[in-house]
Structures are given as C-alpha cells and as structure tokens.
Amino acid sequence: MEQTIIEKIISNHCGLTVKPGDIVDMAVDTRIARDFGGANVVMNLKESGLPIENPAKTFFTFDCNPGGSSQKYAVNQQICRLYAREHNIKIYDNNAGIGTHIAIDEGLVCPGETLISTDSHANLVGAIGAFGQGMGDIDIAFAFAKGKIWFKVPSTKKIILNGNPSSQTHPKDIALFLLKTLGPNGLLGHAAELYGDYVDSLGLSGRITIASMTTEMGGICSFIPPNQDVIEHCDLASQRPFNPIYADENAHYAKSLDIGIDQVPPFISLPGHPENAVPVKDIKGQKIDSAFIGSCTDGRYEDLLLAADILRNKKVAPGVVLKIVPATDRIWKRALDEGQISVFKEAGALVGNAGCAGCAEGQIGQNGPGEVTVSTGNRNFTGKQGQGQVYLASPATAAASAIAGHITTADDIPVIPSVFLARSVIQEKKAGKVHASSIRPTHIKGRVWVIHQNNIDTDMIYHNRHLTVTDITTMGQYTFGNLKGWEDFPQRVKAGDIVVIAGENFGCGSSRQQAVDCFKSLGVSLIIAKSYGAIYERNAINSGFPILTVSDIDKLELKTGDEIDVDLSSGKTTNVSTRKKISGSPFSQIQMEIYQREGLLK
After folding, report:
1. pLDDT category, 98, cuts 50, 70, 90?
2. What's the pLDDT score for residue 422?
3. Which residues pair with 577 in a beta bridge?
4. pLDDT at 8
5. Pair type for strands 221-223 and 156-162
6. What are phi and psi for residue 458, nearest 5 degrees?
7. Which domains does the chain have, with CATH numbers?
C-alpha cells in the first residue's frame, strides 16, 4: 500500500501497515517532559506505581522558566531533578534551552523517528522529517513507563507552495500567510507534507519556523522532506544511523493544495488571533511599547543573525524595550562568539537565558496592561503573552519596529523614531469556587451551557498564569477566566451541568492538562463540541473525562438552560424540551475503556 510520510513512520513504529483512522500502539523513540508539566508527570508515575521503560530515551527539559524565578516553577523543577536522579534520567537543566530544539541539535531525534513532549509545538521536528506530537501529562507518563502510546493515524494534506516571495519576506511571513490562507482549522486533525522550490530552498531554521506553526493551523504535524543539509546536520548531531522517510509516489492524500506565494510581502498577525494576518504595510505606523525576538518558532541562530544585521549601528527607540532570547545555549554561545550579542547590547536590547521566554509566563517577554508588543512567537491569543496586545511577525519586522518605535519593515526604518502617546491601563480581577468532580455514567442528562464560538483556545479556558497549580480541586475557579463574557462561569455552573460548544476546534493551543481538569473540578459532567484541538481531545480521553463530538449540534437549537439527554455509547443526543434528536460520534472502544477505568493510567 502506498503511504504518506506519517503513515510510514507510524507503520515502522507499530509493526503494522497502517491507514488513516487506525488506532495503534506506537513506539516512541524520544519522550520529553518540560518543567511546568514535568512535576505532574512525576506525580502520575508515582501514584500509579509505574517504572521507566528506557531512561536513555527519556528526558526532562527546563525551558519554560530557565531561571526558576517563580517559587512554583522552582518546586516543579526540583521535583523533576530528584526523580531524574533516582531513575537515571538526563535533564537539560536551566542553562540548556528549548527541549524540541535540543532534541534536533543533540541528535535525540532524527528523520523517520518519533518524539512526544508536553510541548504543544513538539511537531516542529517535522522540519527534519521526524514525527513529533505534543501531549498531556498522562500521555507522557504512560510513554515514560511503557515506551509507547496509543495513536490514531491521521489523514495527510499535501501542500505545494508555488512561486517565490518578496526579497523582504522571511519564513515566518510565509508561515503567517499560510495560517491566514488555511485558517486555524485548516489542518485540523491532519498531518501535512510541504513541497515546492521555495520549501526545498529553506535551511533548517526556516523549516523549523514553518513546521512549528502547524499547531496554530490545528494540525498534527507538518513534514518537510529532509534534504542533504538536514541529513548531514542530524548525522553529525546524533552520531548514529537513521532512515529518512519520504512519501510514496502514489500516496493517497486527503487533499492536495496548491498555494501561490509569488511576491508575498512581509505579514503580521493582529492581536488575539494568529490567523488574522495582514501585510505589514497595512498597519505601518502602529506605535509599540516592546518587541520580542525568540521562541521555538524564531529563536535559531539565523533568526538572531537576521535581527543583528538590522540592529547593527542602530538604537532601540526611546522607551521601547527589545527582548531577545536564543532558543538554546549552544545558539547563545555562537551568537556571543560571532558578535551578535554585542550588537544587541549596543542597540539597547535585553538578552535573556536560552528558553521559551515570551510564550511562557516565567521568563522575559510577557507584557503588561495596555502594552503593545511585536513578537516572533507562535501565538498571540489574548492573555497568552501577558495582558497587553501582541502582534506576531518575523525577526526582521520585530527588529525594524523596535528601532522605529512603530510597526514597520526593515526597508522602511525612519531616521527619527516615533514618540509615545498616552494609553489607558485596565486591570481585571477574577475569582471562582470549586465544585465536586464528575461522575461515571454512560447515559448523561443535564442542564446545558451553550457557547457559540469557534477556536476557543486553552488560554481562554485556563490561563497560563495558573499553570503551576497542581491541586485539581482548586482549578475550577479559573475556568473560562480569559473567555470574554464567560469569566463568571465558575460562579454560575452547577455540578452535573453540560457544556455545549456550538463551534469548532475547542481546546486548540497549548497542551495544558488543566484546561480539562478545571471542568472536572467544577463537576461538569460532559463537554460537547463540533470538533476539538488534537491535544485537548487526547487529554480529555486520557483523564477519563467525557467529551463528545457532535458536528451538527446546531440542529438541536439549544439555548443555555435547556436540558439534554446524551448516550455516550451511541452518540445519540436529545433536546428534552423539544424532543429533537441527532446522532453524534459515539465513544470509540478505546475511549470507552479509558473512561470506564477513570483514566489511561488507572
């Protein structure tokens, strides 16, 4: 049978010839837990009395808060250190950098291999032709213990980029253009393969940038077939044999998309939605307070070199803060040795320790109320990078804007920078209460809360400032604390209620388990949505929390306060008030088994 890249890789890792829709036990070559999720992984392993299957393939990476500057992060990191010492697990500690980049540069994963991590952007290893997937704490604990994990084989979309962009355009601009073109659901539940002359011309850095944005398109993983340069990089890093995987000539794709990128200009995403991207020229002149260059999407050496070439012999605009964070310590040292760090400091930038930085609460890059930031990160969901407004852009646009004091491109930096205008500051206070956990029926009846919104991300469900909370009984009070109009949901919901998301892609974004557990804390008995983010769906299933996919839920004409009756075994859903009935997707056998035993690890 002719196969795509992901089908071949999974086949090689389960001993079967797979096709889309198959659910298999997939061997995992590399298993990583980060600092914010690592403590929960350890807790799950200890509580379930599980061993470590192979310490040589198991790692901790401390990249969210490399300084351990939060006491909660420091506690979590030390929990991981003590466990790692006891089980002979290697830690890439505070000085190392982003785990997924370390995995590539240290040869922990190679083309044709598999990697999972508590990082929702683990799929960026598709840049070297490896399969990466972000997963929740329960998944990672299971893989630590068993060396494998269940996985549903996705269909693949083939994306062919035709033409060549503007000379001022960089890989991040193309990633944002693709996100605008495909939308946040464009790859939902699918893998992707990228082809075209432009793709072939990309170095490793550019490949990582584009592959890392797959999560923002709802995708499982985007594969860029490895060229000789990538193979040589991985060969030098790993010092071991590996087998690059390429799609068969007649492989079947769910869809083939030809996307023209000829003369595409620099792009920028407007605050709140990564997919809401426009040409930079459309909003030139927007005053900014800060800029951030870094993250797993744009923290490579080539990204720093691009920024340094623009910043050389120039100064950051008065009052503007430019924060730069290399992805790894190796990149940091190279930038130091080759003079880029000196350029940054002379320009007036703040250079931080290698790590995630602005995408995580614990390190430089967050912004305050009313602050306008140009960031090279991968997400700008409201509240994700702080309480201000975040525009997503390339390192070139971020550097040029920091010099100009306003949003601009590298070819249009003014001699005199912009000055500040007064801006109001608004602060919000949120609180909640805790309810009992959910019950175990397969036939559920209850009052509904209907939310008519697509793409409700995990920062809206459970904000990243609460990620260090590990006590599930206290999580409910933070539910929907960042979803406009629903901040008081914890005070209004009652145990046994059902949440109906009359929209798609619920739970997109980060891999945080708390975005599931907060509903358990409140006693919510069931969530129904038209579709889910891939990681969120796994987290809910693995924790034994019932979620149901009902694509035509609108036909029930539900409103908040109605009562519905749901049969998890058949997927049949009834509006008790109107007696209207529809059929959703029933629980799969594996979902029902995990649900009945109250979680994957039970």
Report:
1. very high
2. 56
3. none
4. 98
5. unpaired
6. -70, -20
7. 5-260 (3.30.499.10), 268-404 (3.30.499.10), 443-596 (3.20.19.10)
